[in-house]
Amino acid sequence: MPRLTLTLLSLFFSALLTIDDTAVDRGQGDERWAEHNYTNALEILLPNRAAVESRFAKDLKWVLSGRVLPPHEENELGFFLQRDYQGQAQLTIIRPRRDSIIMQLRALRKEFPDASLDRILGHVSLEHKRMAASDHPEVGLLADQFEEVRMSPVPPLDLFMDATGYEFWIETKWGSRTSILLSGPGSQALKQQHPLVLWAEGLRRFAARDSSK
Q1: Longest pairwise C-alpha distance within the chain
Q2: Which of 19-23, 43-47, 59-63, 96-100 has the least mean pLDDT?
Q3: Each residue of 18-53: pLDDT tens digit?
Q4: pLDDT above 90 for 213
Q5: 191 CB burial (10 A radius; 0-12, 13-18, 19+)
Q6: Smallest Cα–Cα separation from 56: which of 35, 79, 31, 84?
Q7: For residue 47, which of 137, 145, 171 has the smallest C-alpha distance?
Q8: Phi-psi bin for 209: left (phi > 0), alpha (psi -120 to 50), beta?
Q9: Distance between CA atoms of 90 and 85, rounded to whole angstroms?
Q10: What is the DSSP string of 105-170?
Q11: Pairing mode of beta strands 89-96, 77-84
Q12: Residue 91: phi, psi to the nearest 5?
């Protein structure tokens, strides 16, 4: 085979390998970018401590803000639960409309490689749903069960593979507040080790039933 032909073939295959490596590098870059910005994205998109303070109205008895963060790209869940002095409860659920937030970040970074985090977050698809106990009796039951939770002030020492994270911020009318960060085995576990995790999984089941309606 002529030397010129061999040279051209060598350049052609070298170019193919370069293109393939570039694609792999770009894909890994999108993955790293999403992982690096995931915590900041959650702070902006889902409830947090500051959101509790901003939602407090004069007639409220207490406000709970929380997040459930499962592994393996399962959909995250954010929520607000509040009860007033008349006993009325209201629940707001915030969740991805389709893929999880982390998966949406990866896809949007690929679609808008030069965009800022704020711009990309504007494209994340979330559902916000507010429900009152007057229309959804289960909301009042969730508030009752939350008030009845009894637990040790010492967090559990259990370790879980592929743990689900649970984050809670609670504030009462006169300024008492509590923050609790827990982990658990997730929704598929036959038994939950912590009463607050057990309560949160009940909330997840209610949210899942509501989304299927």
Answers
A1: 91
A2: 19-23
A3: 433 334 345 568 889 999 999 999 999 998 777 766
A4: no
A5: exposed
A6: 84
A7: 171
A8: alpha
A9: 12
A10: HHHHHHHSTT--HHHHHTT--EEEEEEETTT-HHHHHHHHHHHT----SSPP----TTPEEEEEEE
A11: antiparallel
A12: -125, 135
Tokens standing for 60?
Answer: 């409220």
Count of all residues that appear for the chain in the document: 213
In the sheet with 89-96, reading across from the earlier edge strand, the strands are 126-132, 89-96, 77-84, 60-69, 164-172, 177-184
pTM: 0.82
What are the backbone angles phi and psi of residue 126, rounded to the nearest 5°? -130, 150
Q: In a 10 Å sphere around its CB, with 0-12 CB exposed, 13-18 middle and 19+ buried, how is residue 138 labelled?
A: middle
Question: Measuring CA to CA, how many Å separate 123 from each of 47, 75, 116?
Answer: 18, 16, 12
Radius of gyration of the chain (CA): 23
**How does 153-179 read in b/e, with b if 16+ C-beta sit within 10 Å?**
eeeeeeeeeebbebbbbbbeeeeeeee
pLDDT tens per residue across span 138-192: 999 999 999 999 998 888 888 888 899 999 999 988 888 899 999 988 887 778 8
Write the DSSP symbol of residue 4.
H
CA distance 52 to 167: 13
